[in-house]
User: Fold this.
Amino acid sequence: MTYIDYSLDALPGMNMLHRITHKRHFFRDEQEVRAVVCAVCPDQVRKQLIDPYMMPDGCGYAPPVNVAELIEAVILHPEATPEFAAKVTAFCAKHGPPAPIPSAMSASPRF
Assistant:
């Protein structure tokens, strides 16, 4: 992920992947990783690495990855409601990620 200040920096080009590989700079502390699967690839790659893990409806990709092991922290949005926080806490307890913590941001960023 590349973090930029959209008020000062432009996306580096017209590649459609730039929109999903660039994020606003005030989220830099997240150190987010995004996995992107593109349907346009060589047949051999698609048959070995994509097709076996596609969801039955063809709209999702579920490779054999233990996502909980990859998550270092779950950070709640500064304006998350107590009800939402409770749901996230329950989800984390059931599925393995660490318990959520409040965001260090005092307010939502201005766009």
User: Anything to note?
Assistant: The first helix runs from residue 18 to 21. Helices lie at 18-21, 43-50, 67-70, 82-95. The CA atoms of residues 53 and 64 lie 8 Å apart. The chain has a mean pLDDT of 84.
